[in-house]
Amino acid sequence: MRLTIPTDANFMGNVFGGQLLAEVDRVAYITATRHSKSNCVTASFDRVDFLAPVHVGEVVDLDSRLTYVGRTSMEVWVQIRAEPLEGGAPHPVAEAYVTMVAVGPNNEPIPVPRLTLTTDEERRRFEEGRQRTELRRRARSRAVEKEEHHAV
């Protein structure tokens, strides 16, 4: 949990999206590091959705879970909820998918443990994460091909 303060906000009194993204990155790092038991780096942010503004003085709570684990990478889903400091029901304000890569002492990617899936929801989220990972790989390949084509 984190209290939002005036230095987090724009002139409208809403917390900057970048402030929230920094919190998302930290939480994704913690989640991935706990799973891999190694240092991790951020490889990508995917599908960041801002659902509602966060106002100065609200408390934000970030919840995360691994949705997909590949050989060296992990997809972490992070949801942010906000609630008034004085009390009230928390409401979703943002969510994001972050890909983290485990790295060893030489900053080279290293294998990570498999993800244990025990529920139908976990298996569904894993398959969706696998599909998103494949889409990211294809997009990267197209970008590299395009760059190589322009370099010729």
Question: Which features does this protein show?
Answer:
152 residues, alpha+beta, Thiol Ester Dehydrase, Chain A, 5-stranded antiparallel sheet, 34% strand, globular
Overall description:
The protein is built from two helices and five strands, in the order βαββββα. It has one domain: Roll (Thiol Ester Dehydrase, Chain A). The chain has helices at residues 17-36, 120-151; strands spanning 2-3, 39-50, 58-69, 73-84, 91-103. The protein is α+β, with helices and mostly antiparallel strands.
Give the SSE map.
Blueprint: E1 2-3, H1 17-36, E2 39-50, E3 58-69, E4 73-84, E5 91-103, H2 120-151
Antiparallel strand pairs: 1-3, 2-5, 3-4, 4-5
Helix content: 25-40%
* CATH architect. name: Roll
Strand order within the widest sheet? 1-3-4-5-2
What integer is the average pLDDT?
Answer: 93
Uncertain stretches of 5 or more adjacent residues:
none
Radius of gyration: 18 Å
Number of domains: 1
How far apart are the termini? 51 Å
Global shape: globular
Number of separate strands: 5
How many helices? Answer: 2
Query: Strand fraction band?
Result: 25-35%
Which structural category fits the helices and strands?
Answer: alpha+beta
CATH H-level superfamily: Hotdog Thioesterase
In the CATH hierarchy, what is the class? Alpha Beta
The CATH topology is given as Thiol Ester Dehydrase, Chain A
SSE order, as H and E?
Answer: EHEEEEH
Biggest sheet descriptor:
5 strands, antiparallel
